[in-house]
Amino acid sequence: MLSEILIISAKGEVLISKQYRLHETGNASEIFIRRLKDNNQQLLPCVKEDETSFYHINRGGLYIVGISRHEVSSILVIELLTKIYHVCKDFCGVFNEETVRSNIVLIYELLDEILDFGHIQIVSTEKLKPYIQSVPVTVRSEDTRDQVATGLFGLEHRITPNQAADQPCTKPRHQEGRKHELFVDVVEKMTVLVNADGTLERAEVNGQINMKSFLTGNPDVKLGLNEDLTINKDEQGYGNHAQLDRCSFHQCVDLREFATTRILTVRPPEGEFSVMTYQVPEDFPISIPFRLITVVNDTDVNRDIDVRLKLRCELPINSHAVNVKLKLPVPKITTNISPQLSGPGQTAVFQSNEKCILWQINKVSGGMEVSGTFRIIAPGRTKSSRLELGPVALDFEISNYVCSGLRIRFVKIFDRSQSLVPPSKWVRLLTLGDSYIFKI
Hints:
A ten-stranded mixed beta sheet has the order 11-12-15-9-8-25-23-18-21-20. A five-stranded antiparallel beta sheet has the order 2-1-5-4-3, sandwiched between helices. Strands 13-14-10-24 form a four-stranded antiparallel beta sheet. Helix 3 crosses helix 5. It is mostly beta strands. It is globular.
């Protein structure tokens, strides 16, 4: 039983405030924003002040907040907020501050239908469609992922730029039936910890196969995965073929063919959902995509600290990473930096509020090395200031590559409606740095 739903920007501005119980809300939004600022935006998903409970998630740089003065399940509220995020994303295409501002009427209409007097009613995109009259305003995503080559798995497959999959899954009535499309994303997130001597201490990969459907007529979709794919540790495999563990599947997935042919049969609902989530086994030989060499010169406390970073991309030569960002914490007494970078397409700035260096590289190809030398101006430093240096955090996006070796052999759509417009199928592979840390 919720009293209010808020959507708040990263700057603490209330974009959406849907009140379900006016006598219970009061100044709840001001309390949450104050708590958020007091904790430097590092707030637990569930906090309580006096008799009011605040639940929140962070998606697209925005806070989706549920407020209640009753005893409710924390897991239930967090799941509801996640459903609200997915519904808004399905109807608007993308979920960020600009999209919310452009679709305020639509989002209020959705919240009216999702909850009634604070009680959950409808959280399915497909079931909400008949009750929503507002037309979504499409806003182009700020994501700038590169488009990779076509024909990755054969002539019937194409790779799409990110903006294509960011279209709303609901269209105005005069546009319905023009064409129907299916987007399939294989997304893997890496958690890596590398010691100062370059040895790998930890490497984890969590992946999922996401699907976003614009298909009409509820057709069946068959996804063919690697024929030699091994699931769970108890199955016997051979060589360096793809091995997955802890797999879970969406309820719309039929697994009857999967054990023998590695084919998933899916009847996708409208909107975006995860067909399959998985992990790569700990004993699977993972080749990490980046190595970092760090040299620190801080022998004389009367001089500035010189740090040299050399980043090497270990990807195949036909792959590349984009939006590469390295963040290096520096001593708190640092006043400025003087960077020297190895080439164009790179920037380095000192973020005084976070006391760190942010080095951004537009693109790094496989087998390529980039380097940067940073003079850290820290007057009055001591030998202990060296302990405040590092570790280096790396963030990146890699298209057309997943380190598990998982492949989509084919995507087949069995269209029972016999639509005159042939369905379009788009497949994309993406690897992201979730927590990629180098000790120095």
